[in-house]
Amino acid sequence: MTDSARILVIDDERPIRRALEMTLSRAGYRVDVAATAAEALTQAALQPPDMVVLDLMLPDGDGAEVCRELREWSSAPVLLVSVVEDEAEKVRALDAGADDYITKPFGVDELLARVRALLRRSSRDERGASVIALHGLTIDLPRRRVTAADGEVHLTPTEFDLLKALVVADGRVLTHRMLLRTVWGPGYADESQVLRVHTARLRDKLEAHGLPRDLIETVTGVGYRVNRGEA
Amino acid sequence: MRDRSLAAAACLVSVAVCSGIVALITPAVPARATGVVYLLGVLAVSSLFGLTAGLVASGLSVVALNFLFISPHSFMVDRSGELLSLLAFAAAAAIGSELAARVRRQGAEATQRAGEAELGERLATLVAAGADLESALPAVARQAARALGASEGVIHLGAPAPASRAGQTLTLEVAGARVGELRLIGCPPGALETPAADRIGRAVGSLILLARERDRHVAERVEAEALRRSNALKTVLLRAVSHDLRSPLMAIMTAAGALALEHPADGDAELVQTVLDQSDRMNRLIGDLLDLSRMQGGVLAPNRDWCDPADIVRAAVAGLPGVRDGGRVRVEIAAEVPLVRVDPRQLERVIANLVDNAAKFSPAGEPVEVAVAAGGGVVSVAVRDRGPGVPEDEREQIFEPFHRLAGTAATPGSGLGLAIARGLAEANGCRLELAPAAGGGTVFTLSIPIAQTALRRVS
User: Fold this and answer.
1) How many angstroms separate the CA of residue B288 from the nearest CA in chain A?
2) How many whole angstroms separate alpha carbon A74 and alpha carbon A54?
């Protein structure tokens, strides 16, 4: 099913673009390539991709801008390719709608694992689901109830909202700003202290019900995501 | 001398002119009333040439009036009327000269003040124009000398200069503190004992202090700007180097990875794996070297945020698959650990390097223990290995780049891990030390200061 997915690779360096193209084709995907932001947006409009692999630093615009423009009409998952030094840029691109990132240079296994996870997630589309099951945890969104194998997990309204945001994102990285805005409101975007404290409490409670602590995975310096144990 | 003869001439001329006028008007005006004409002459002389000239003019006027117009023509002043005239003329001379002198004094003072104001303005302009103190001093000295009526002036800063050759010296003081002195050539005697000289001395002194202060600020700013530019340059350079080194590596790794996907023949698979492993190793080395240069170039700006130390420790361990999956790391986190304000990625790197180092030097099968606790104003992260320990004289050297303990040459690694850990820890205001562990091995302790405003994490 996923082997016929169409992937758009955007990278300004030819050797890397070419290597990515061949790797992904050999793995069974259909691959389009673009060298610049402008070319990428045109290409994406001509052949709507199922997924985008985007180099963060392009000669004619930054990755965050491409994400924002792409997100206006496409929900295809975006995997960012960045170097360690581009931390701030990366967070901006994630805020702008990118789904995940991978740090250069990376192994092919890692790349393919991320691609598979993102494609699986976008095909699963649980946006309509009201009850989500995860690691033996059942999260009933309308009733705001969380049940583990050994009984109900009692969460405060804030903790529930935090868990809900992460679970609905379905493994996508949510930046600190995104979580603070979603759960606490726009005025709290910089209150990282509050987020840290509540995340720690939420993990404590889940752990007390026998769930792994890394069910909510820390993406250091970026944010959190739910660990579906797939990637 | 010239002034005195000029005054004498003025007396004579004035009396002669008055006599002429009186002679012209006498037929029409009673002789006795003509005295007022002489009075005007006396006033004019006394106001222009002072009291003495006025008194002389008074005497001459009375004599001339008496002799020329009042009969009998005589030089004698023998009548009470003439005595009264003389007294009135003398009084007029006194009043006229005093008033005139007062006006002249005020005028001179005003000129003096205007001169000082102008001096102040010029001095201020010199400072404001941005000239540095050294090059502005000669101009300042010249202006001050002119304001004091001297022909030449030189300013000496600091302690008194050895005995002066010639001229007078004005000490430049501000609030009792000596700034320097103004050496004056061709200064009128007594000019330095006036309040004006005091004012000028203080003004010049303050100006010098001000200029000195300004010069210091300018120097500091220039230095800070140079440092900022140099850091910005280093950052750009390191970024470019990082990009230029990693891009080819990235292409190599991706291409080799694509080859591996094709299920190559046995021998080829091994070759491809070698390319991948060595690329990976080179990548880590590049990362370490870049971090080290950033550290030594002073461009490791921590991006501080509130972090949960437990979170950082777990993420660090999770990021070391080889160590984590071997089940060799035991993490123990105290019940109540406050949040800390550090760069989470840099701290994660510190802890990952420590754990990686501990795993490398522990005998196979021995666990690495990581303990997180709070106390004494810090959150401490202790990483303990069961290795052979570090000799006492090497406990500091071990943090030097490329330093390796004797007998560990076979252990893989760049020799940069601990140097980077220490550098990153210090950049974040943390301490990193090592001590022998009870029961063998070594314990590295990272102490992270607790911010005053940290919220408590309540379990």
Assistant:
1) 12
2) 14
Better-scored residue on pLDDT, B73 or B340: B340
Task: Name every chain A residue with its beta carbon within 8 A of the beta carbon of B325.
Answer: none
The per-residue b/e assignment along B9-30, b for 16 or more CB within 10 angstroms, e otherwise, is ebbeebbeebbeebeeeeeeee
Q: For chain A, what is the total number of helices (H) and then of strands (E)?
A: 8, 14
CA distance B391 to B395: 7
User: Which of the four pLDDT bands, split at 50, 70 and 90, describes residue B324?
Assistant: low
Say which CATH topology domain A2-124 has.
Rossmann fold (3.40.50)
The residue in chain A having the minimum alpha-carbon distance to the alpha carbon of residue B335 is: A204
A-interface mutation test, from B235, B242, B244, B250, most A Cβ less than 10 A away:
B250
Q: Is B440 on the interface with A (CB under 8 A)?
A: no
Q: How far apart are CA B442 and CA B446, in angstroms?
A: 13
ipTM of the complex: 0.80
Q: Indicate the residue of A27, A105, A204 with minimum beta-carbon distance to B250.
A: A105
Q: Is residue B248 less than 8 Å (CB to CB) from chain A?
A: yes
* Comma-separated ranges of CATH 1.10.10.10 domains in chain A: 131-226
Question: How many angstroms separate the CA atoms of A61 and A59, rounded?
Answer: 6
> What CATH architecture applies to the domain A131-226?
Orthogonal Bundle (1.10)
Q: What mean pLDDT is predicted for residues B199-214? A: 82
Start-end of CATH 3.40.50.2300 domains in chain A = 2-124
Give me the tens of pLDDT residue by residue for chain A, a chain 231 residues long. 444 899 999 998 888 898 899 889 988 899 999 999 888 889 888 889 999 999 988 888 778 888 888 888 888 899 998 877 677 888 888 888 889 899 888 888 889 988 998 888 877 665 567 888 888 888 888 889 888 888 888 999 999 999 999 988 888 889 998 899 889 988 887 788 889 889 989 998 988 888 888 889 888 888 998 887 654
Using CB atoms, pick whichever of A15, A26, A87 lies closest to residue B258.
A26
Q: Label residue B459 by pLDDT band (50, 70, 90).
A: very low
- Kindly give, in sequence order, each residue whose CB lies less than 8 Å from that of residue B176, ignoring residues fewer than 6 positions away: none
pLDDT for position B15:
83
Facing A26 at nearest CB: one of B249, B262, B280: B262
Could you give phi then psi for residue A139, rounded to 5 degrees?
-115, 110
